[in-house]
Amino acid sequence: MSEITVALSQEFLEAYARIPRRKQGKVMAMVTKFRENPRSPGLNYETLATPDPNLRSIRVDDDYRAIVLKPEHGNVYVLLWVDKHDDAYDWAARHRVDIHPRTGSLQILASSTEAVPAEHPEPPPNTMSAAPAEPLFQARDRELLRLGVPEMMLGPVKTLTNEIELEALAPRLPEEAFEALTFLAQGEPLNEVLETYGVPDTPAEVDRQDFAAALRRPDSQRRFRVVEEEQELERMLQAPLAHWRVFLHPSQRQLVERHWNGPVRVLGGAGTGKTVVVMHRARWLARRLLEDMASDNQKRVLVTTFTRNLAIDIEQHLRQLCRDDELARIEVVNIDRLVARLVKRRGAPRLVYPSDKGYRKAWDSAMQMKPAEPNLPETFYLEEWQQVILPQHVLTRQDYFRASRAGRGVALNRRQRAALWPVFEEMRTQLSHARLRPFEDGVFEAIAMVERGELSAPWAHIIVDEAQDFGAETLTLLRYLVPAGQDDLLIVGDGHQRIYGRRAALSRCGINIRGRGKKLRINYRTTEQTRRFAVALLEGQPIDDLDEGSDSQQDYRSLLQGEAPELHHYPDFDAEMDALAERLNAHLAHHDPEAPEGRGADSCVVARTQRLLDQIATALASHGVPTHPISRNAPDDPEQTGVRLATLHRVKGLEFREMHIACVNDGVIPAKHTGRTEDPVERRHRELNERALLHVAATRAIERLHVSSHGQPSPFLRNR
Ligand SMILES: Nc1ncnc2c1ncn2[C@@H]1O[C@H](COP(=O)(O)OP(=O)(O)OP(=O)(O)O)[C@@H](O)[C@H]1O
Fold it and tell me: What Enzyme Commission number does this protein have (predicted)?
């Protein structure tokens, strides 16, 4: 007798989330019993008179029933739905579960009587014409089947004439088919879509009775989960709508669940599930460490990020994803803290950043050494210090003569470098007297400590999120901190979201990703309308791929449709705030008092500076809108009441149902200091960072995006 396979579907979790709490406990008890032994006599199965002979119902209590797939052959049991008795039976009468004849994946299908939308939606205006509209897809049946379109949906798919109709058909199409059709509808060539999404033209034979094999297919794993552990089941039922914890996209799974022969780089636009990959990969590697008896039990997985907020968020999510023993093998720390920890010694200088008072004081003293010739502004020196001296660890005049100044817009000959050098030398002297050390020097010190054998790093694997904001020196340090070899480094990032600093090429940091560069393409977070708006903010800008090449967002899509982002311009700050408060109050009025989240927790107002944000908070308070600032040091408590307030920088990595980007005025975005440089290359970089800031903030919106300004709108909003 083959082993019993117990699984559940995404629909089951969604249905479970909808039933009253007191009933959920009963379902949980039933599910536990079911998992222990799906053939237990205590489970009351009933055969149903439904089109699909493999569906059964199980009694939960007097009122509720679960619908289960129990094929006649094999030992597979899949929980599909749970509802009140009549509604559950009704669901079972309207659905069937099939193994797709070409792809072999398991699909839940609305039964044929409902396969075609009852009402065809209104076509968009530009398709209204007397002539019959062209079909949206020219592909042949054979090709559509290769993409996972169910046989019974071939007819409806071939009669579609526009994307709106495709969208209306979405609930009746398996995700993989809808995704492939969306790319086709948006103009991607058929052969490319077939290559990415289709099974080969002559696929392996599919056994349409082998449900256990069907469950193992990557496309099935997008919506079905084979339950292996009791604890895991409990975690799923505790957060039934956190799909990311349970169901991975095949492109995510391919990155997570395999060994890699060296560093891997993963790109992907905002919301494509990069952080989800980071977390699942950390867990997968932690499990391997636990399973590997020969492995040193001190070995850990390090997850590092650029911002502290994201590290806190990841740590919190990992607690919900992992078992305790897995968690004990994972360490999450943002890069600044990591470096500070590595170089911390009794009496060691304190690490400082340009915003630090001591740093600024040292700089003011150093500027006293500024020569009359060449006559360069102070901003030039600061940029030279930050972009040449610190990243290349230039310590002497000779080093400076040899340093690369690639990417600087003003050339300097040897004599000029010699004239400038005393300023930088003085800066180091001043810092050293104050027992301070710039962060970058700390990084080089950590590298030197590894080289001298003074630092033994406990990490077998390192995973980097937000890699686009890491400097070359920190990436180099990470290379030093983990032995080269299998699964050593996973580098995840998106050049479009670089809001700090400049590009650094992995290959120049000793990280060779050749043949291991991957990309995620489906945006899970925002609507397609928001995605397009956000992408347009960066149109025509040169974006890198974290290595020596370039990246684009042409193949990045969202499958969710929604309202177009709203842009509003007001004569002055008060008018903008009146309108914003009105919107927020309307949103707050719809808050469900039964919901566990605090009133306003799903809405966020962002502005370019803290000062503006303070003014906004005051204005909103005068309109009776409760607000709550997002903290840098603690995870957001969703139960806390208040519309969230954050700077554009602070919302990186987060997401909200509604995003309001306020005061997008000329002189605010780009920030005034962007233009305070003589160096044209530097100016372009800064401007790109500012555009990326808006792009990042816009892509935090799950459902709605609202952008407003007063006075003159930001030049980035012109023509929008
Ligand atoms: N496989 C999945 N199933 C369901 N939801 C997913 C999946 N992958 C990601 N998501 C959801 O999509 C959203 C974006 O995911 P995530 O934050 O990992 O994306 P990201 O690429 O890191 O985004 P960004 O770069 O914009 O910060 C989250 O709400 C996440 O839960």
Answer: 5.6.2.4
* Distance from the alpha carbon of residue 295 to the mean position of ligand 1, in angstroms: 32
Question: Which tens digit of pLDDT belongs to each residue from 136-185?
Answer: 999 999 999 999 999 999 999 999 999 889 989 998 999 999 999 999 99
pLDDT at 296: 77
**Ligand 1 closest atom vs CA 653:** 27
Report the nearest-CA residue for atom 8 of ligand 1: 273
The response to whether residue 276 sits with its C-beta less than 6 Å from ligand 1 reads yes
Q: Among the atoms of ligand 1, which is closest to the Cα of residue 270?
A: 26
270 Cβ inside 6 Å of ligand 1 = yes
- The reply to whether 5-100+210-237 and 248-342+453-557 are identical in fold is no
For residue 543, give the DSSP letter.
Answer: -
| Matching CATH number, 5-100+210-237, of 3.30.2310.20, 3.40.50.300, 3.40.50.2000, 1.20.1250.20 | 3.30.2310.20
* Domain over 248-342+453-557 is classified CATH 3.40.50.720: no
Among 524, 535, 543, 696, the mutation site with the greatest number of ligand 1 atoms within 8 A of its Cβ is 524
Query: pLDDT tens-digit profile of 242-269?
Result: 999 999 999 999 999 999 999 999 999 9
The residue type of 115 is: A
Closest residue by Cα to residue 116 from 76, 171, 71: 171
pLDDT tens for 369-402 read: 999 999 999 989 999 999 999 999 999 999 999 9
Calculate mean pLDDT across residues 477-493.
Answer: 97
State if residue 523 touches ligand 1 by the CB under 6 angstroms criterion: no
Superfamily for the 565-717 domain: P-loop containing nucleotide triphosphate hydrolases (3.40.50.300)
- Tell me what percent of the residues of the chain surpass a pLDDT of 70: 97
Which residue CA neighbors atom 1 of ligand 1 most closely? 248
| Domain locations in the chain as residue ranges | 5-100+210-237, 135-197, 248-342+453-557, 364-434, 565-717
258 Cβ neighbours under 8 A, 6+ residues apart: none
Which pLDDT belongs to residue 625? Answer: 97
- Nearest CA-CA partner of 386 in 692, 682, 670: 682
The number of C-alpha atoms within 13 Å of 599 and in the hemisphere containing its C-beta is: 14
Is 653 marked as a binding-site residue?
A: no
Q: Is 272 annotated as a binding residue?
A: yes
pLDDT of residue 118: 43
DSSP-assigned letter for residue 209? T
> Residue of the nearest CA to atom 6 in ligand 1?
244
Side-chain-facing half-sphere of 229: CA atoms under 13 Å: 8
Q: Which of 525, 538, 558 should be mutated for ligand 1, with most atoms under 8 A from CB?
A: 525
Residues 463, 163: Cα–Cα separation, whole Å: 38
At residue 112 the predicted structure's pLDDT band, cuts being 50, 70 and 90, is low
Assess whether the C-beta atom of 494 lies below 6 angstroms from ligand 1: yes
270 marked among binding-site residues: yes
Name which of 151, 220, 224, 137 is nearest 180 in CA terms: 137
Residue 547 scores a pLDDT above 70: yes
Is 274 annotated as belonging to a binding site?
yes
